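Let's do one together. I've listed all components of the complex below, 412 residues spread over four lines.
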Amino acid sequence: MARARSEERRAEILAAALTVIAERGYRGATLGAVAERVGLSQQGLLHYFPTKEALLVAVLEDRDRWDTGGGAARGGGAWRPDLLASLVEYNAMRPGVVQTFSALLGESVTEDHPAREFFTTRYVQVRADMAASLRAEYGEVLPGGLTPERAAVLMVAVLDGLQYQWLLDPSAVDMPAAFRDFLELLEGPGAAGRAARRDGEAGTRD
Amino acid sequence: MARARSEERRAEILAAALTVIAERGYRGATLGAVAERVGLSQQGLLHYFPTKEALLVAVLEDRDRWDTGGGAARGGGAWRPDLLASLVEYNAMRPGVVQTFSALLGESVTEDHPAREFFTTRYVQVRADMAASLRAEYGEVLPGGLTPERAAVLMVAVLDGLQYQWLLDPSAVDMPAAFRDFLELLEGPGAAGRAARRDGEAGTRD
DNA sequence: ATTATCTATAGATCTATAGATAATGC
DNA sequence: ATTATCTATAGATCTATAGATAATGC
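Okay, and this is what the predicted structure of the assembly comes out as:
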């Protein structure tokens, strides 16, 4: 019971940290602000996460579990283009989470940032997984003419870049539609039909 | 003479601010660190820029002049795809500047960030200028099938997104090559030849 | 007068440590 | 014993204001 309580508390704290980081970035986030949101004193929070950096690491590990933890996600299938299109649609409904990780990604390029290695390692793996998915689907050359590896770099770039434009000006940027546009460039005309056939779904996109 | 001295000093301070922001972001940058780099006391610096925010605004205004100030840049021609390809190549040689603005863009999505409006306004205009350039070149539909407006959103996303991947792991990402890949997707095969003909240059890309 | 700088410092914060108190689990 | 929290506080910073000093420009 105590253990369960404790886990609950930690989860509450992580959720609060997500929110505060979205509002102010990691450097701007204060332990006091996170604690207040949970209804703890700042020192009470430090009982669960002994340092500010430990809290950030926990936030990042949590994300890692989410992204790669699900059964279907393991082994390269998580970053299939059609699943990504759904992910983008899902993300467009939770600006808070997108804002947290966009703020962290932006900060992570500065020196000695505790999230830097996380993002670096993660992108190596995400690009590799995407390339594998694209290769499985299209072989060595996509309809648009790129190799899977070269397409993967652009895919990650589009995903991240769209988030910034969308966060800054949600009404000016239709993030899911833009991502679908990009997929069509990569996959050539008829991509929507191909995806629908594979999933056994009817209906068209766009 | 006093005026000239003063302008020089301000320029020195702006250059130092660029560097410190690249290292630590705006929130992490301290006036003391900027001042030290110029060889001034923190209070001496405040003589030139009365607040930290005033210093940031000056950095951003400086960038605005750079981007849109040149004669050829005015009126929409600055964001032509072929010029962008050169800009990306140029940027790949100055990671410091790229890092400054990538860090600022990342921070700008957090609440009440003093650069938020700058980036929001800027992106509206950049997208519009790009769309105008693409329309002038291709008309209502690009070879890849997108309208100029829809292509512009993706182009900005690719530019920003590639910078993060490249800053985190320069040896893993060939930023200029990736951007050329994207242009070929947009413009279809033969884009390199088309650009070369327009510029009266020989030679191929890629 | 104005400009360029400096010393001193007020007033806010922030992280993290120390040590106490109360409740829970063997 | 261990867990969950709290009060108190040390030790660092940070921004910005106040006021002094020296040099430059009319």
